[in-house]
Amino acid sequence: MRKDIFYKVIIITLLLLNFCTLGYLWIGKKEIEGEHERRKEPADFIIKSLQLDDEQQIKFEELKHRHQQDTRIIREESKNLHDALYKQLHKQTVDSVLVDSFMHLIVANAKQREIVNFNHFRDLKTILKPEQHKLYDEFIEAIAQRFGPPPLRH
Fold it and tell me: Mutual orientation of helices 133-147 and 96-126 as an angle, nearest 10°?
């Protein structure tokens, strides 16, 4: 009789755990899908935030395409530099001069990425009408807060 109760408790516990796991996965999937939707197309956010007209959207597509090409090249270079840097860890003796050289190249690559992003947003401003400049300023503030470093904690 006691074994029956024990097994029933175990079965009910396992069923509850399964339901909780399924619920967690289902809710987590919804959150992930929502995050993908928010991050799916930053261009839509830019177009809406700056209220770009049709002509401006065509110009923006050109800017976006050029920006994507430039950043793709920089990301590939960054990956190659990081791969080369961390391959140094496989060696018995690490060449500190070579490691330092890779570090400088990685920093230069990060600087180039920031330059490309800065120039992209500067170029974006050139397609705007004067009445859109206030929207642009608000948009840039939002971007700076979103992608800038986290605030310092005291």
Answer: 160
Contact present, 116 and 71 (Cβ < 8 Å): yes
**8 Å CB contact between 131 and 51:** no
In this structure, which amino acid lies at residue 56?
A: Q
Question: What are the structural domain ranges in the chain?
Answer: 1-40, 42-154
In sign, the C-alpha dihedral spanning 100, 104, 107, 113 is negative
Q: In this predicted structure, what is the pLDDT of residue 51?
A: 94
Asked if the 42-154 domain carries CATH number 1.20.120, the reply is: yes
CA dist 52 and 45 (Å) reads 11
pLDDT over threshold 60, residue 46: yes
Q: Under a CB-based contact definition with an 8 Å cutoff, are residues 116 and 70 in contact? A: yes
